[in-house]
Specification:
mainly beta; four-stranded antiparallel beta sheet; about 15% helix; elongated
Amino acid sequence: MKPSIGSTNVKLVAIVGVTALGLVVSAGHIAAAPSSPPNNPAAIPQALSETVLAPDADAALVARDTRTSAALGFPAGAQRIGRHVVDGFQNSEYDEVTELDSAGQVTSVTQFNSQGRLLSAVRLDIVAASGDRVDQSAAAEVAQSSASAVGLVVGAPSSSEADQATGGWTFHWARTQAGVRVRGDETRVQVWPDGRIQSVARVEHDLAAAPTTPLSAQLARQLASMNLNRWFAGKNSSYAIQGLDLEWAGPNAAFDPAMVDAAPTPYRLAWVVVVEPSGDAASAVSLMCLFVDAGDGTIIGGDFVE
């Protein structure tokens, strides 16, 4: 059993409205945009910053964006805006290129990590829908070939679903490491009904070293039960363990409030123990997961469904 659920105890920070002013790429180079006023530091969260890209570093980024846009079938922009972003909330940094048409309207945005690998690409130009429509099989082939062309996937998608908003489809490639699923990590491609790529996104967390000898499922169940027995004692509640899966999981604040403001850390190999509460506890939580570290047996986090 692998529910897709979110932690109720983890503090989430939403950042809305990253400034669209930056550097304009003209004739293949990034230069200061003459009409852009200085960034207002007070308008940007303290842990989010943007810096000017060094002039001698722009050629590789421009080429990367050009290749990516062409591979995905995105329209070529008349100018580009480039920036380097440091996101302290997510403990990440990346280079971003925004392409604009001759009227200054955004046509696409691409983001690349420090190794130059694509993180996301989205097409934002508004184009009248064509009368053509492809079936899901043809859309899957387009998604696979495009994502392969930009170095993100190998092989057919692991799952897909219809996109109710556009009438197209979304295709997913789940990430695994050494044959073990990385919880929440994937490559995702959205395809419009006429077969054009709307967006590509990759979610990929750093992974800690795997333990030399992982805990057995039996021992992980025993350790989870010890904690559950203590938590549920005297509360007119009980529980049933519904399943265990070995996965890479991210430490979080689900069972440790002291971690609420902690910076993200690499995912660790863990036994994900799915638990169904009963009694009084079931009125607040219908399902919960414990992440039991597969190395030392500690509880490193979890998820809840209310």
